[in-house]
Amino acid sequence: MSLLETYRTDPKLFEEKAELLKVIAHPVRLCIVRGLMAQESANVTQIQTCLDMPQSTISQHLARLRAAGIIEGRREGVEVYYSVVNEDAKRIVKALFP
């Protein structure tokens, strides 16, 4: 089976993978994913300190990553700790930063 036949038979798969690439292609989101992979989890304050950006900016990027199913949040009291749950995203970041 050629690649074109695969696309014709399952275009949704290619759309999902392309969307994943679009979401992590942003430098800040790529940095967040890489950092979360290195630390296993972090809250917004920890991410904000590392990136030296406003909390609102970090929250917007986290929301985009969460909506794409790349990260998940775990609530501990008033804090939410984020971690990377998407295996494709993990493989991509590992390939980019061996």
TrEMBL record:
PROSITE patterns: HTH_ARSR_2 (PS50987). Residues 9-98 form the HTH arsR-type domain. It comes from Thermosediminibacter litoriperuensis. This is DNA-binding transcriptional ArsR family regulator. The keyword Iron does not apply. Keywords: DNA-binding, Transcription, Transcription regulation. Pfam families: HTH_20. GO terms for molecular function: DNA binding; DNA-binding transcription factor activity. It comes from the Bacteria.
